[in-house]
Amino acid sequence: MIDMNKLSLEYVPLQDRLRLTVEDQNAEVRRFWLTARLTIVVVEHLVGRLKFRQGLAAAKTRNKTQPGGQGSPGHEHQASAPGRPAPSPVLGEAASPARTELVHAVDVGTRGESFVLTVRGETNMSMQLSMTAVQLRQWLQMVYHQFLRAGWPLAVWPDWFVPKPVAPATTQSLSVH
After folding, report:
1. Is the pLDDT higher at 9 or at 2?
2. How far apart are the first and last CA of the chain?
């Protein structure tokens, strides 16, 4: 198993796939191909988990105001021990050749407050990425932007996730001659 340290995500038109480039703690670089079909399934699952987690957080907030609720002082949940630092979000092209694996499965789990993605390649090579909810949303933003570049279907992205277009500011121009 490879634990990720740095990563980048890029749409490669020639392959019509996303290339996930990963650097581990030993500075070894690996590349994984993500197909549209698998990525859509993973995105649906992750968005569902994020939505569920947000619903739980909202319920905990409501319970804090209710006497005897789970959020009351007698029912505090202990925070999980902090894990290793989060991976850096950007990785440039590696100087050394990197092995490329076609991803066959992505397992999604949780560890404490973190989401854990285990990416499994065609030769059983795998790697793990542990992210907080905020980091997961940031990673999903990277994926979303690659979906746009690829022209892949956007139906998988919920309305609350898709950035709203910013209306151009109305400006009044004055020509002075």
Report:
1. 9
2. 69
Quick one: pLDDT at residue 127? Answer: 85
Quote the CA–CA distance of 119 and 127 in Å, as a whole number. Answer: 5
Query: What is the token pair recorded at 5?
Result: 């340290």
Q: What is the DSSP string of 112-166?
A: TTEEEEEEEETTS-EEEEEE-HHHHHHHHHHHHHHHHHHT---TTS-TTTSPPPP
Residue 164 pLDDT: 77
What per-residue string of b and e applies to 66-82 under the rule 16 or more CB within 10 Å gives b?
eeeeebeeeeeeeeeee
Q: How far apart are CA 81 and CA 17, in angstroms?
A: 36
* Backbone dihedral region for residue 112 (phi beyond 0: left; psi -120 to 50: alpha; all else: beta): left
Whole-model pTM above 0.85?
A: no
When computed from its CA atoms, the radius of gyration of the chain, rounded to whole angstroms, is 20
Residue 111 has pLDDT above 50, yes or no: yes
Higher pLDDT, 104 or 85: 104
